[in-house]
Amino acid sequence: MDQRPTVRAARISLLTLLAMLLVTGCGSGRDQNVPEISVRDAWARPVSAGGHGAVYLVIENAGGADSLLSASSEVAQVVEPHETLHGEGVVQMSPLDTVPIPAQGRVIFEPAGKHLMLVDLKENLEPGDTFPLLLEFDRHAPITVSVIVRQ
Description:
- The chain is mainly beta.
- It has one domain (37-149): Sandwich (Immunoglobulin-like), CATH 2.60.40.
- The chain contains 1 helix and 10 strands; from the N terminus they run αββββββββββ.
- Strands 1, 2, 3, 4, 5, 6, 7, 8, 9 and 10 form a 10-stranded mixed beta sheet that branches.
- β4 and β5 (90-95) form a beta hairpin.
């Protein structure tokens, strides 16, 4: 009995399998260095037009490190990342140029901590209102979130 066809078929199958592995890669197909950003729990307190407000939210990153570069919204003239600093009985708000988002980590924007300052509001923010907020990152595509106004 001639085994050449069986050996030849096995070689072709092996070469096909190797070619498929080279094309698709051997890993999970996910580059751990690419940021995978999601944003949740975006909210702001009520405030009158002309005043300043703040947005609080959580940025989660399931991938590589990134940075929040800027934010903007149609409800404010300017949106600036800020951090509240506590020291020697004094509380100060300090603007942040960027906000690092660690790989496989999260950044929490919360009262008395990091927040996105809404400067010179163009309209009243009333409980139940929502408004869009655009977040721009160094590496990840921009994300628009809906911010809810609540107490």
